[in-house]
Amino acid sequence: MASSSSDSTPADANEGCVGPTSQSAGKASACAGCPNQASCSSGAFSSPAALAAKDEERSELRSSLSDVSHVVLVLSGKGGVGKSTVSTQVAQALSSRGYSVGLLDVDICGPSIPRMAGVVGRTVHQSQQGWEPVYANPNLAVMSISFLLEEGDAAVVWRGPRKNGLIKQFLTETDWGVGGLDYLVIDTPPGTSDEHISIVQFLNDARSMMNADSSKSGASGAIVVTTPEEVSMADVRKELNFCTKTKVPVLGIVENMSGMKIRVSNLTFFRANESENGDGGSSSSDCTSDVLSLLQEKCPEVLSMIAATDVFPTSGGGPRGMADKFNVPYLGKLPLDPNLLKACERGESFVEKYPSSPASSPLNSIVDKLILALPVEDDEEEDASMQE
């Protein structure tokens, strides 16, 4: 039975795929139930025209990504766990350290990166080199479908092939600027859907041709985001299995919304015995001013302390235990922090705007670990290694 090279195997293929260009394609026992079986058996992937088109596509992808040092996917099987927050703030933090960073939003139906990066309402322009991304700061270029919509609240109701086509355009037609990128951070939608399969396959096609070292093929790695409760982790385990199947290295798991931390001076206080009205709020005014004044008078050191509470119940060993089970790094906990929400809503770099806020140190630690895992060589070091 013929086998295929990994770069020609569809990302959603069955285990034991013989490859779409094999003589057994669509006919082998491993093909049973594969979504590509009909296309493979018809020769749609192996005709001279199809092979030529595939080679041309790979060449375009390779050329477009040749100046990108590292591609980082931000994934999670669950929605609402903070992928876009992590994507944006990691990209902002990297750019604040002087790295050249691209932030690509492939959540086609729910793009939120422009809001979090502070570039809402901006548009991209077409040049001879391709689409010019929007710059959140001199080191951070952003690309999203949101920039292409005439109306910001317009619904994107697209089927898989059209989404895949736009993702390919993002990868092949975006001009990230002279000198390329140190890091391309890609924010993805929840799950393991068309967008994920397409982005992994496109990256495999592009980067496998750029270096003989197989470890350089595809995405450089993935940051997987979860919250502590089992409802989230059950779906995130599926995402980790997706990474295993598609051979995407997992850079680590981020435990987001891991409790809430806030300075006592920023808390709002209500009297416990007061009734609540129909909308869930207190029927009378709060007593925050009285409490803070009392603390200032009697125990002022308390005001600078951090108050913490668990919001989501941790299941079993939690995200750290899940990381141990899958033998992947645990990058750390990001607490719920009102200032982090403010930074995302206002399109600000959280670690720069709120350096002493509770979540700032954990976020910087995550970025430190990312840089350690994916170091960027300077031009002199790269030239020296090529000469050797």
Would you spell out the secondary-structure blueprint of this structure?
Elements (H helix, E strand, L loop, with lengths): L36 H5 L6 H18 L2 E8 L7 H14 L4 E5 L7 H5 L7 E3 L2 E3 L1 E4 L2 E4 L16 H14 L7 E7 L6 H14 L13 E6 L3 H17 L3 E14 L24 H11 L7 E4 L8 H9 L3 E7 L1 H9 L3 H4 L6 H14 L5 H9 L1
Parallel strand pairs: 1-7, 1-8, 2-6, 2-7, 8-9, 9-11
Antiparallel strand pairs: 3-4, 5-6, 9-10
Helix pairs in contact: 2-5, 2-6, 3-12, 5-6, 7-9
What does this structure look like?
By secondary structure, the chain is an alpha/beta fold. The protein is 37% helix and 17% strand. It contains 13 helices and 11 strands. Strands 1, 2, 5, 6, 7, 8, 9, 10 and 11 form a 9-stranded mixed sheet that branches. The chain has a two-stranded antiparallel ribbon with strand order 3-4. A hairpin with a 2-residue loop joins strand 3 and strand 4 (130-132).
